[in-house]
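Researcher: Go.
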Amino acid sequence: MAGILFAEPRLAEIYDSLHPDRSDLDPFLAIVDDLDATSVLDLGCGTGTFACILAGQGRRVVALDPAAASIEVAKRKPGAGRVRWIVGDAFAIPNLIVDAVVMSGNVGEHLRDEEWAATLQACRDALRPGGHLVFCARDPVGESWLQWNRESTFERVDIPGVGAAQSWLDTTDAGDRHFSFRWTFVFESDGARFDWDATFAVRTRSEIVAALESASFTDIEVRDDEFIFIARAP
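Model: Structure:
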């Protein structure tokens, strides 16, 4: 399947069942709280769990994702009515000024270097002076993706109203600055199969910091335990 994975409605509908543990969001919620951010742009919001939590805390939230099917799932969640939902990438960010821009997923890995640089600039432009960009990256140390194969990544989940769904990852190529993989989904009820081929960029800590500095961000902090970057807009 070409294009954006969770733009496929059938996959968007099961995303939350495949990822029921969202403790990965806890560090970002804590950072937003520490920054006392009252307005947040959730860039790459997926099915909207993070955005809805933020809105439930009384924050003003704009949530953006290129997958329309994922946004449709998000709009049905409790608290979704308090979020402004937008279908698009970083270049679809409307004219707004927020306290924080958060990318809690793998937004940067999808992008080539020139696209990544432009995305950082778009984030900077959406921030108030002194506002913060917060995002995570995949720590390249250990090259964990080299261990991705059906045996090591296979999951089978029984989903109410859907039945059993299988998924697994296979690494198909790897280099110094990228790796490619196929993510496969199979619905046991009818045998429908979806294969998504993707290539992710690999960036070191120093390369990410350099890109942030080139986009005029300052006071860059890296939380090594989660490989989360926090940078302040000028």
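Model: DSSP finds seven helices and eleven strands in the chain.
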